[in-house]
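Lecture notes, unit on protein representations.

Consider one protein chain, 399 amino acids long.
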Amino acid sequence: MRKFVPLALLGAALLSCEQPLFHTPSREGGAGAGRTPTQPPPDSSRKDRSVYATALVFPDTVNWRQGGRDGAKVVLFKDGAPVGSVPAGDRASHDSHHYQDGHLWVSVTDGAQTSISCDGTTFFTYSGEEALQGFLVADGSVHTLGQYPGGGLCYRIDGMEVYSSRTGTVLGWAGDPDWPGGALCHDASGVYYTFGMLQASADTDIWEYRVMKGAEVRKELKLPSGASLYDVRVYGGKVYRLEWRYGKYCLMVDDVLTPLPLEGEKHNMKLVQVDGRILVKGFDYGNGESVCWIQGADSTRYEFAYPRFPVETLLVDGDETAAVVLEHEDCVFRLIRGERDILLPLETYRLKTPRCAVFSKGIFAVALTGEYENEHLLVVDEKQSPVRFNGYFTGIYIE
């Protein structure tokens, strides 16, 4: 286990925003200008993967548990040791920063303008305030999907407006752990997003949805009476929709409907990508147990059930599954990978965001935040590494 160096002793080499530790590419000044980072070719000789974690870290005088946010920095950890940091802005939150391909991206707004920085250096700035529900670096550009305060949205590429609407609600959210881009999704055909609009009528209010590729409407969705839409994603050039219609849960692929083998009331259902396929993830509660499952339109099914205590999530990597189980105070109780089980002390650690658990490339990793103290815990498979700082983990990633 690497020894953790207290942040207070790292000095300007780690915490200064004037000299970022990350490699930042050349850029062009002005709103909407910037070039995305370039990555060196992967080292094919490297046998081991690294585990990266992000955290919001505050000065020791700030009580973040009581809502304090002054002086926050986003700190990047590699295999348990801090390797760099960037300012988090005055409205620091776990949704305002993103880690992708070795770079930390942070969005900061003062209400009048919003700026996006890469590794501490401003990449572009635009007027107005937007809560980013989608962020993705793809095809050599930075794609953002922002929700305006009070309604409406804007899709941008490198800070330049591509499409906006003063009405509409983005379908999806920034911290979705199953989709790296949050409300944005990406395949070889492009970058996509979906938003809904409430259409008032004399009889009832009806939601209509638009699946977008840039400023182009890829598909308009008008549901029949009594139907409900849970999720929409584009994958492999096809539009996948999770719906309730005709008294059944259904998976729609473009306009082909397949009933799902699901019975009874389901909770928190969404679409996920598993091993190159789009499946449905959801929860069952009742009969004294909690069940998290991932289901295909065919017989494909993964599930994990636990008596009396709630299952927080089920993760799949290849043919293996892993699960996070909470106790009744919503602190993490057990971490289970296959037949391996790690039991944690009660009321001690919390999964602060859904992105703090990952199972990928053969590694099950969890970033846990101390419930009462600033003693936190990184768990990588069966290895546990205490980490101490004033703040909380916001995500964990395998590279």
